[in-house]
Design brief:
homodimer, about 400 residues, alpha/beta, Arc Repressor Mutant, subunit A, Nucleotidyltransferase, domain 5, 3 domains, five-stranded mixed sheet, 15 strands, ROK family protein (chains A, B), ATPase_NBD (chains A, B), WH_DNA-bd_sf (chains A, B), ROK (chains A, B)
Chain lengths: ~400, ~400
């Protein structure tokens, strides 16, 4: 607990400085002074505290091409301070060791058997992490773990309530995924669990296609359609953490029945199954099957072209509705929506122009993820770093470390 | 500018204490100590500062029925410290003098000629304020002015861009309503301007049907359908302040053309015009005409009943979509949607149950406004008080007052 206003302000400033170099990389003291609104001596003292804690170091900048003695830069100690980032995707499991600053230092991938519960992924993920840990330098400091899970996540306890394979009823008993993962990893504190689209949105907002924007829609296509929505710089989670279920926004009252019990959900028009059904491949699933249709459309096959155009039209339709609600600066098309958007962007834009109010779309950019398929992992790493950045010395102090190394 | 961390903390605490009594009314020092997490002597010093500035006073509580010497309570000086709250509604203009604490001390209403620009309301509103001002005690301190405007409002400058009467093109040149109103009122600082549904949402969230909830949809029906959306305790405004345009969410792709250029917008199914058209009163407009249909339906007239049922069904449809997006704790039906919801709540609920995901609606309450038609005025007053509550002594100090009394 901070014991005085001065100490509270100092801790806040330490967090602000560490967050700045975490997000922007190596930064000169002059820039830190200007950007954080603090004086030179304060920046010097804060940097010294963070360096003593092993969180940053100072060094010469990369070649600037300018003459004269270069000013030193403050850098996050990316190879020493790290978090584990995990993702439970529809058809695979991923684990990465991510350094402070956001670089993926190491990663592992495993298949996920179709139709399995998220809880079934725990053993595999723990094995991936333990394997990475054997290759981690002994001097490294683990500061946290974050998990991205496709499906529905409740914020308070990281419980996964619905995932795409849950079937029509949709609701599972709710295994406490975070707790179980924490136990399997041998961590004192369970990992933070986030919805995959939410954490991918966070990643693209932090250091991707939506950097610098405060109002962002990140749309993610896999077996379903998810969204991470950032409004006023903050994630829209809703009361229980179930916000952003754009896939179950009804766009076509006369449409097909949806697995959720409703009819004509956005997912039933632009989801993987809809696309594959429209090319006569009812039984097929997965990203590769979607990409095959997109490629066929690009080759000029009429049935595939019509199917892609159908998706593009309804994609623009739903985006227009969301733009009227959120007046965003950027919409980012992630997962399989990336390829579907790129395959017929003209149609998506045409529908959007027709349906979105001019004032709601006037500064809108349509983008694809800069981080590509790594967005969920990079976002999960942001969850892992959150505590450290909120109070650097508290978390980094080895005497008070909440994460033990996995056995 | 605060000159030290201690001073910054003190100002923050002054704001927190004043905001607490503004929202909760007379509060004992013991409760303030507990709720603000400060010690007794700090609460005493802060109260003394606020009392010296004329913002609060201390006195005996109302009769408690308990024996013993009652503890003193801290009260906002509602009759001394006030703001002006204005609303530009579809068919009327309102002005109120609202005391710190939220009580309406005085108010005036005027007709608004149909189809006029918001800018045309300035002279009338200024006259209403000046008339109230003549009846205001000389010792009163005016701390700000807020305006609620039906239509679309851009946040940065309070410019009104679209209003229901703007017709298909929708976009006006954008009169700087706030500046013009400030000039007409003789205020040094222009009033803060907010979208009517946004400020009504703020009012119901602050001291109405949605108090205590962080995720709220306030829906407002008049000539159009507007919404004030609160996510994570904060208003969703979008990039330019145009968020929440739920009336132009397309719910029925096969529906009628909408004034916005799209087709099948929510407004074309549940708006005033849709209801009146469905009972064969194409030419009629206004709240009274809507109420006449609702009353006819309650009397059992079949055509009116069918029209109200149509609205209820599509009302539930749109609310279900929004619930899946925002996972709110409360939906509040305001304006003419209040009566329409109450007239056939069974149908609204049935549709909602069928379409909203169980996890997204599991703690949902459907409510009507506690503040009724005063919600926009009470919300506009919150805009007026915002600066005072952010930094009480800066704003209340007569030597630094930014609002002069109207001439």
């Amino acid at each position: 607990m901070p014991t005085s206003p001065q100490e509270a302000v100092r801790r806040q400033n330490l967090g602000a400085l560490l967050r700045y170099v975490h997000l922007r990389g190596a930064t000169s003291r002059a820039e830190l002074t200007a950007r954080l609104g603090l004086n030179r001596s304060t920046i010097g003292a804060l940097t010294a505290d963070l360096a003593t804690a092993g969180l940053v170091d100072e060094g010469a900048p990369r070649e600037t091409g300018r003459a004269g003695r270069p000013s030193l830069v403050v850098r996050p100690r990316s190879s020493r301070v790290y978090g584990y980032a995990l993702s439970i995707e529809v058809d695979r499991l991923r684990a990465a060791r991510v350094g402070l600053g956001g670089a993926i230092l190491d990663s592992r991938t495993a298949q996920r058997p179709p139709g399995t519960e998220p809880a079934g992924a725990i053993g595999t993920l723990a094995a991936l992490v333990h394997d990475m840990h054997r290759h981690t330098p002994a001097a490294g400091v683990l500061v946290g773990c974050g998990v991205a899970v496709t499906g529905m996540v409740r914020q308070a306890d990281g419980t996964v309530r619905i995932h795409p394979q849950a079937g029509p009823a949709g609701e599972t008993a709710g295994a406490a995924l975070g707790n179980a993962l924490g136990a399997a990893l041998g961590h004192d504190r369970p990992p933070l669990v986030g919805d995959l689209a939410d954490v991918a949105a966070l990643a693209e907002h932090t250091r991707g296609a939506a950097a610098g924007f405060d109002n962002v829609l990140y749309l993610h296509g896999d077996a379903g359609i998810g969204a991470g929505i950032i409004a006023g710089g903050r994630l829209v989670t809703g009361h229980g953490g179930y916000g952003g279920e754009v896939g179950h926004m009804v766009v076509n009252p006369d449409g097909r029945p949806c697995g959720c019990g409703s009819r004509g959900c956005w997912e039933t028009e632009i989801g993987e199954r809809a696309l594959l059904r429209n090319v006569g491949r009812d039984g097929a699933t997965g990203r590769d099957a979607v990409l095959a249709v997109v490629e066929a459309a690009l080759r000029g096959e009429p049935v595939a072209q019509a199917a892609v155009r159908h998706v593009a039209d309804w994609l623009g339709f739903g985006v227009a509705n969301l733009v009227n609600l959120f007046n965003p600066e950027a919409v980012v098309f992630g997962g399989s929506l990336r390829e579907l958007y790129l395959a017929d962007a003209t149609h998506v834009r045409a529908r959007l122009l027709r349906m979105a109010l001019p004032v709601c779309r006037e500064h809108l950019r349509l983008r694809t993820p800069v981080l590509g398929d790594d967005a969920p992992l990079v976002g999960a790493a942001e969850l892992a770093f959150e505590r450290l950045l909120a109070d650097p010395l508290e978390t980094a102090d080895p005497a008070d470390r909440e994460f033990s190394a996995p056995a």
